[in-house]
User: Fold this.
Amino acid sequence: MIDGQSTQQYIPDPRRWRILTVLAVTLFMSLIDVSIVTVALPSIQTGLEASTSELQWVLSGYALTFGIGLVSAGRAGDLFGRGPLFIIGVALFTITSAAAGFAPDALWLNISRALQGIAAGLFNPQMIGMIQQYFRGAERGRAFGVFGGVVGVSVAAGPLLGGLLIHAAGVQEGWRWVFFVNLPVGILAIVLAFLWLPKPLLNSRQGQGLAVPGVPKQSRDLDMVGAVLLGLAVVAVLFPFLESRESALVWAVLPFGGVLLAVWLWWERRYKRLGKSPMVDLGIFQVKSFANGTLLVGLYFLGMTSIWVLIALYFQDGLGHSALATGMVGLPSAIASGIAALWGGRKVAEYGRKVVVGGLYFGLFGLATSILVVWLQAIGAASEWWLLLSLTFVGVSQGAVISPNQTLTLAEVPLEYAGSSGGIMQTGQRIGTSVGIALITAVAFTVLGFSNWSMAFIAGLTTIFILVVLTLVVGYADLRSRRAGE
Assistant:
């Protein structure tokens, strides 16, 4: 059993808000890259004469490599220092962004995107770990709230910035600038990291002084066998959902992923019995707040992240709107998400899980009213642009759920496991997103086979609604668990 927050006494670092600024700049860069590339896909297809399969891998390759190393990168940061791995990851992300922008063909672009995913998987767990390390109590909630605000701004700015860049540079070459835009941001993040991150954080031996409960100091290592097993398991689980449209044969890989996951669990238990430090101490799941919060966010991402894929399909393929107009649909929602995240970050210490539960109700209301709008549009009684209003409630939900849940989930996790626990959460989110998109788009296209886009969209939203209801059940279970503990 893992308990306690840290073996070291916490003394607030006066530079912690500067550290948060460095992390926020980096987060903005990594999120802009995701949303902006989605808008640029038609330009990439035109400029590089890419096939549909090659185009899919622009997104899938990044998602796959991003998910592979999250947990092992987080564990490496816990043991050997978060600062150096953070800077290496940001530098690699910046370099591969330039490589993607200069890509002469689709193969070069997809290799660059895969390396971008590895870089993002390297620095993302370090950001979570550093917030855990430098912020405690109510301040940690506010720090994660700032992260949520950055998410909202990034989601809003990405599609608009992408549309403007492609409009300015032309369809043929405009896609290159959606990658070049990362260069000044990445360089700024690296410069600020060297200026503002504390020197002990930049020392590669920083993590070696942390004491892990119940584990002899000399036995702590990276557990490479565990890292490889988990990485292969994540690939085997994600791959069928990312490539399901290409061939039904890819589903044969999924059971292999389950076997690899079982072997990984066996190895981690065995590794600990031998007196060594496993990549993931499975005792961390005995911390109910962590287990419940990880399950909750996985279910939430399984549903809610797919809504914007449905919006893009409905507005462009169903209604014939442009990519730029489609990007505008999410603007009020993204702004509402940022505001709600900042509010939730300030209030989560006071209201706890009630903030998340309230956010889930906002999501259900937004989904229900969106279904109503689409139905009314189908019978000619309303405009599809009323979705700007109904989806604003979805934005409030995302801001009130994701960042506050992160605060609550990691609140009782020991500092020694801050990076690896953050990696576990993010891996769950990546798997939830990939599985959810495959599931919900499959529902929509199945309905489209015998109906129209309005009914297909409603079917997809109804599926998301059911998944959010299941998320709400987990939220209430965690709420009861916390009350019982008190």
User: Anything to note?
Assistant: Residues 12-203 form a domain with the Growth Hormone; Chain: A; fold (CATH 1.20.1250.20). Residues 16-48 form the longest helix (33 residues). The radius of gyration is 22 Å. DSSP finds 19 helices and no strands in the chain.
